[in-house]
Q: What sequence folds into this?
């Protein structure tokens, strides 16, 4: 018999954690300080920050800060105590659900404590072992983890490949008919790594050929896409074709929590059957009060979304004009593709932060294939055109160093702290 701890200790780092001895606190788990926004402090140095999903700049908006503070002052962080079903229900929770569903054009909404946990629980609640799932190959980890709980069959289709989806729907339909189950298709409105949009219009059109229900995770689309930020389904004009719509507060709403929308009977089914909510404490009142203010600002101030897209368009057009590859993004998510390994990635990031005061996320193996690097840049409504101009200048400098082999010849700096 093997001792569980002995086995775990031999590979305590895992695929990413193996680098923790030089990375912790700098390349991983960095501590940004100061007011949330495009200019923050990292290890005592001021940084131009492109790493926050604070799309509309609400994280440090004065009205949001005031609402959060008032919610905490009036109710404290403990209220309401208990799960919604037992003792954690309030008129404010109901008001937020009502306003959210009206905003995105659905019959009803149900608040969730967390986005990741919420999606896992939605999938668990929707399916029986007889049901078959068809999902996009680049679905978010919360979708994949939800599907791991599914005791039935599932088919994956090539990312945004409608021919592949049609083929998998044929397989899923045949299997579901033999099992006496149904078919659920899962995709995203905006894919958070590449920034491309799920082909919601084409998927909805496939309902004329196949019988299935459609679940859409629009975490990055809510607030950024569609009329006044109503989301990607609104952008495509297919809101009625989305059977289950999921959104989080962690992006445009700059908060914690999430919500799921659909027909009233289905939302009531979630209320009475989602284990992650039935057995969890209600979303704290300050977060609910703060979310009401955030939604009010999104609804009444379209100039926030307009400014986001002004910065997004300037950044993305500038990158393309300077020969950078940004792929197929059609959203504010801006991936900048480069070539290199772990040593190049770490030295490039070190150079960006220490010598140029620029902070953004970098993605490398094992998240993406070996030899590939992605600088993931997130524009927001509170960035400026001057920020864009400076970033383009810096990116050209580090690209020249990367392509000339400067970073590959440097030793990986040991910047770890706190372990």
A:
């Amino acid at each position: 018999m093997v001792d569980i701890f002995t086995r775990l200790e031999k590979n305590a780092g895992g695929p990413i954690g193996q680098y923790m001895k030089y990375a912790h606190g700098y390349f991983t788990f960095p501590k940004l300080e100061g007011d949330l926004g495009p200019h923050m402090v990292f290890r005592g140095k001021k940084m131009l920050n492109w790493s926050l999903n604070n799309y509309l700049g609400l994280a440090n908006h004065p009205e949001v800060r005031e609402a959060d503070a008032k919610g905490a002052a009036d109710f404290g962080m403990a209220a309401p105590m208990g799960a919604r079903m037992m003792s954690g229900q309030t008129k404010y929770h109901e008001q937020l659900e009502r306003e959210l569903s009206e905003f995105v054009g659905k019959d009803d909404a149900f608040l969730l404590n967390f986005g990741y946990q919420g999606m896992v629980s939605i999938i668990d609640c929707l399916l029986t072992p007889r049901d078959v799932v068809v999902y996009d190959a680049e679905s978010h980890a919360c979708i994949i983890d939800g599907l791991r709980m599914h005791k039935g069959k599932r088919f994956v289709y090539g990312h945004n490949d409608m021919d592949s989806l049609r083929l998998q729907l044929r397989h899923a339909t045949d299997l579901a008919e033999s099992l006496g189950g149904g078919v659920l298709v899962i995709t995203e409105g905006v894919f958070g790594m590449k920034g491309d949009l799920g082909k919601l219009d084409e998927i909805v059109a496939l309902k004329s050929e196949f019988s299935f229900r459609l679940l859409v995770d629009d975490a990055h689309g809510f607030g950024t896409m569609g009329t006044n930020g109503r989301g990607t389904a609104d952008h495509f004009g297919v809101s009625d074709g989305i059977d289950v719509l999921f959104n989080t507060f962690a992006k445009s709403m700059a908060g914690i929590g999430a919500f799921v929308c659909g027909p009233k009977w289905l939302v009531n089914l979630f209320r009475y059957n989602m284990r992650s909510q039935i057995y969890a404490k209600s979303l704290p009142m300050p977060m609910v009060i703060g979310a009401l203010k955030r939604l009010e600002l999104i609804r009444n101030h379209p100039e926030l979304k307009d400014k986001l897209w002004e910065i997004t368009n300037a950044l993305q057009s500038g990158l393309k004009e300077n020969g950078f590859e940004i792929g197929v993004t059609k959203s504010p998510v801006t991936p900048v593709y480069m070539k290199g390994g772990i040593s190049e990635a770490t030295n490039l990031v070190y150079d960006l932060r220490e010598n140029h005061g620029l902070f953004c996320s970098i993605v490398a193996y094992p998240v993406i294939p070996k030899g590939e690097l992605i600088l993931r840049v997130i524009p927001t409504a509170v960035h400026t055109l001057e920020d864009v101009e400076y970033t383009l200048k810096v990116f050209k400098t580090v690209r020249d160093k990367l392509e000339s082999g400067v970073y590959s010849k440097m030793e990986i700096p040991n910047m770890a702290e706190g372990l």
